[in-house]
């Protein structure tokens, strides 16, 4: 099957809003809304095509674009590979140069219709925050709570409860307390590896272990399902299960696993290339590493100690 390669831009303002454009008359799906972009011409890289298309369509000069996710979609008239970039820097004010209509949208609230069907999963991915905090309570759940409160006040909106050494009863009480605080800030909570606990407390999702990826025959029936991955095979399995996002680790050496092999930036980028689900980088990172992680294909960074400073 021959696929048409398309470069697609998620232009994102500082306030988080992103740009959609309506398809002009005379094109397939005229009037439908989509992300700006266009076909990759022979001899072009995807990034070069992106820069050219945004200049031709919107009259802007791209200064900062990072690879994000890939969508493979079959329309009646074409089979396409959509390579999405996060575009956060440009010169000029976007304006319609090809008869389209433009509209800035907020993640989680799409106010235009109809939208090209290939783009619906992209909206869900855009609603995922850039930072994913993983709890570090250890033997002091009460002492962790002020750190959690500070992080939530500072804007943390996605949390994983991961306390492998905590007794079951203590863990459930701790997870309930984390969830209550998170809900007060419209933050979402996932629980590591325990679907039953997620269902009992009403959390938003589960973080599947690599072992669970190999054991499950279908995706758990939860709003959010994430996967912990370390290699291409595990990422393949996460995609096949329909996970919403993945953690890929360890990127760099970490104090908790001294001497353990780390992926490094180049291997991490190679593993992210062409993936259909957003990937968080995990291992040896801090919030200051977010831009570098995105330049290597990450959606964001997952932080243990760094989330609670």
From TrEMBL:
InterPro entries associated with the record: Aldolase_TIM (IPR013785), Mutator_MutT (IPR003561), MutT-like (IPR047127), Nudix_hydrolase (IPR020476), NUDIX_hydrolase-like_dom_sf (IPR015797), NUDIX_hydrolase_CS (IPR020084), NUDIX_hydrolase_dom (IPR000086), ThiamineP_synth_sf (IPR036206)
Domain named Nudix hydrolase: residues: 1-130
Reaction catalysed by this enzyme: 8-oxo-GTP + H2O = 8-oxo-GMP + diphosphate + H(+); 8-oxo-dGTP + H2O = 8-oxo-dGMP + diphosphate + H(+)
Ranges in a coiled coil: none
Pfam families given in the database record: NUDIX (PF00293), TMP-TENI (PF02581)
Cofactor: Mg(2+)
Listed GO MF terms: 8-oxo-7,8-dihydrodeoxyguanosine triphosphate pyrophosphatase activity; 8-oxo-7,8-dihydroguanosine triphosphate pyrophosphatase activity; 8-oxo-dGDP phosphatase activity; 8-oxo-GDP phosphatase activity; metal ion binding
UniProt keyword annotations, A-Z: DNA damage, DNA repair, DNA replication, Hydrolase, Magnesium, Metal-binding, Mutator protein
Gene3D superfamilies, alphabetized: Aldolase class I, Nucleoside Triphosphate Pyrophosphohydrolase
Residues engaged in binding 8-oxo-dGTP: 23, 34-37, 119
EC numbers, comma separated: 3.6.1.55
Gene Ontology annotations of biological process type: DNA repair; DNA replication; thiamine biosynthetic process
Residues that bind Mg(2+): 37, 57
Domain of life per record: Bacteria
Family affiliation: Belongs to the Nudix hydrolase family.
Name of the protein in question: 8-oxo-dGTP diphosphatase
Organism this protein belongs to: Sulfuriferula plumbiphila
């Amino acid at each position: 099957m021959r696929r048409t390669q398309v470069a697609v831009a998620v232009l994102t303002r500082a306030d988080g809003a992103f740009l959609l454009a309506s398809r002009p008359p005379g094109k397939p799906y005229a009037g439908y809304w989509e992300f700006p972009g266009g076909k990759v011409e022979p001899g072009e890289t995807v990034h070069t095509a992106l820069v050219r298309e945004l200049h031709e369509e919107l009259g802007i000069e791209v200064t900062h674009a990072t690879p994000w996710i890939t969508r493979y979609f079959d329309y009646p008239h074409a089979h396409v590979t959509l390579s999405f970039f996060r575009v956060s820097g440009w010169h000029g004010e976007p304006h319609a140069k090809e008869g389209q209509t433009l509209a800035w949208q907020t993640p989680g609230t799409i106010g235009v219709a109809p939208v090209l069907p290939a783009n619906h999963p992209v909206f869900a991915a855009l609603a995922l925050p850039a930072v994913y905090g993983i709890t570090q309570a250890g033997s002091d759940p009460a002492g962790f709570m002020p750190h959690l409160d500070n992080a939530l006040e500072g804007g943390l909106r996605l949390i994983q409860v991961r306390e492998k050494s905590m007794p079951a009863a203590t863990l459930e009480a701790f997870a309930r307390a984390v969830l209550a605080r998170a809900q007060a800030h419209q933050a979402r909570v996932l629980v590591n590896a325990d679907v039953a606990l997620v269902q009992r407390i009403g959390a938003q999702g589960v973080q599947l272990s690599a072992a669970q990826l190999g054991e499950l025959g279908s995706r758990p029936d939860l709003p959010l399902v994430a996967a912990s991955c370390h290699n291409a095979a595990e990422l393949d399995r996460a995609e096949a299960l329909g996970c919403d996002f993945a953690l890929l680790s360890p990127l760099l050496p970490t104090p908790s696993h001294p001497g353990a092999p780390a992926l490094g930036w180049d291997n991490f980028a190679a593993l992210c290339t062409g993936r259909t689900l957003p990937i968080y980088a995990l291992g040896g990172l801090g919030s200051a590493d977010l831009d570098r992680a995105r330049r290597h294909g990450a959606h964001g960074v997952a932080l243990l100690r760094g989330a609670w400073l």
